Amino acid sequence: MRKKIIELIKTKPDLPPLPEVLLGLQKLMNDPDCEVEDVYHLLKTDPVLSGRIITLANSALFGSGKDTTRNLEDAVVRLGMQQVMDLVYALELPRTFRKSKAFDQVEFWKHSLAVAFITRSLAKKVLSDYEDMEVAFLAGLMHDVGILVFDNVIPEEYYKFLTLKDLSSTDQPLEGLEMDHFKIDHSEVGAMFMKKWWAISEKVINGAFGHHETGLVPDKPIDLDQLVATANRIANHNGITHPVMTAFEDPPEEGYLDNLGISQEDLDIVIATTKLGLLAAETVFRGN
């Protein structure tokens, strides 16, 4: 089965490219002469997307907590190009993959968005590499994309795999069950797909590939891969899970707050902000 899945990923049947608006935004961001007005003019051509940008720009996930953004131009100016890119990814990717009959994709993307926000929040506190901080949100957002790729390249087989037994009562991790059944797991599937077909940072791909690996290591510098893994564990530990979960418990490593250099109170604020922001995000996702 592993060879079949890899071949299907290589030939990309029914797998989506990155949406044109994201490719356009990336092209603008790579242009040293790009200005905020260029981003605004690109986005305003899609009224539906523009409305959703305004909605999420005012949410706890992207809002500053001060001024309310009332139009697209204000949102672009206030957020800046990198956060606009992050926001458009968060809005467009849930519309890109076909809907699954095996699980609720809105719940899936809520978890992904939570991990993205937590990763970005922690990155601001603990990372020193500028590029790592720039892609932290996307690395968190895309960490589980391999589940969607599985569901698209082998939909019938993956549906049977997910529904053959009650995953919620199984004490093995999902990636372990996938490896036993398919000889490949969603971490590798997602990384392989993104590397082949999506023009995104290698750092984002590595974050997806390693998000079930060891998180923080005491007395060692923290990198983005470890941060994504830890953010994923924090989200799950605080009840922000995706619908393809087993009963396997994988909490953050002991002493992780000390390793991050933050207090429980600091983390509680991040979690509360995440949950508040997801209320607005769910309204948008359900409207897709």
What does the model show?
- This protein is mainly α and 288 residues long.
- The chain folds into two domains: 17-96, no CATH class; 98-286, Orthogonal Bundle (Hypothetical protein af1432).
- The chain is 65% helix and 0% strand.
- Helix 1 (2-11) runs parallel beside helix 11, helix 2 runs antiparallel to helix 3 (36-43) and helix 5 crosses helix 7.
- The radius of gyration is 18 Å and the shape is globular.
- The model has no long low-confidence stretch (mean pLDDT 91).
Would you spell out the secondary-structure blueprint of this structure?
Elements: H1 2-11, H2 20-29, H3 36-43, H4 47-57, H5 72-96, H6 105-126, H7 130-141, H8 145-153, H9 155-163, H10 174-182, H11 186-197, H12 202-209, H13 224-237, H14 256-260, H15 264-286
Descriptors for this entry?
288 residues; mainly alpha; Hypothetical protein af1432; 2 domains
Summarize this entry quickly.
Helices cover 65% and strands 0% of the residues. It is mostly helical. It folds into two domains: 17-96, no CATH class; 98-286, Hypothetical protein af1432, CATH 1.10.3210.10.
CATH-assigned fold name of the largest domain: Hypothetical protein af1432
**Percent helix range:** 55-70%
**Beta-strand percentage range:** under 5%
| Whole-number tally of structural domains | 2
- Please give the count of helices: 15
The CATH superfamily of the largest domain is known as Hypothetical protein af1432
Low-confidence stretches: none
- CATH hierarchy class name of the largest domain: Mainly Alpha
CATH architecture of the largest domain: Orthogonal Bundle
Return the string of H and E elements.
Answer: HHHHHHHHHHHHHHH
Distance between the termini: 33 Å
Kindly provide the radius of gyration, computed on alpha-carbon positions and rounded to a whole number of angstroms: 18 Å
